Amino acid sequence: MRLESYRHDWPQMLRGKFMKKIEPEMADELRPEYKRSDFGKIVRGKYANRIKAETNVVLLEPDIAEAFPNDEAVNKALRHLLEEAKTLASLTQQPRKFS
Questions:
Q1: What's the predicted TM-score (pTM) here?
Q2: Residue 68 burial class via C-beta count within 10 angstroms: exposed 0-12, middle 13-18, buried 19 and up
Q3: pLDDT tens sequence across 14-37
Q4: What's the 3-state SS for 33-59?
């Protein structure tokens, strides 16, 4: 009977014993060896424009996204489309010879 009771109570006994708890007084404070003045002024979004300029993220409409299983398939299709466009452009831009 005691073993049966132990089996049902062990999750309650272990609850909270394995996760590290943050002490409330330390949650928003720097450690004593650091000084706030060492870090300079805090600027929200300081690097946002740089990241925006250096990345090229494209969001697909849901119906288009369903047509492609992954990013590799999207890139392959776009490369094929670019090659077709180049071929078509080269055919239409050939100089005409007048006789």
A1: 0.42
A2: middle
A3: 666 666 666 655 556 778 888 888
A4: CCCHHHHCCCCCCCCHHHHHHHCCCCC
Please compute the mean of the pLDDT values over residues 88-96 and round it to a whole number: 80
Residues whose CB falls within 8 Å of the CB of residue 60, separated by 6 or more in sequence, listed in order: 68, 74
Q: What's the rounded Cα separation, in Å, for the pair 43 and 34? A: 19
68, 74 in Cβ contact below 8 A? yes
Closest Cα partner for 71 from 57, 88, 89, 86?
57
Residue whose C-alpha is closest to residue 59's, from 81, 74, 80, 79: 74
Please state, in angstroms and as integers, the Cα–Cα distance from residue 63 to each residue in 24, 26, 82, 87, following that order: 47, 48, 21, 28
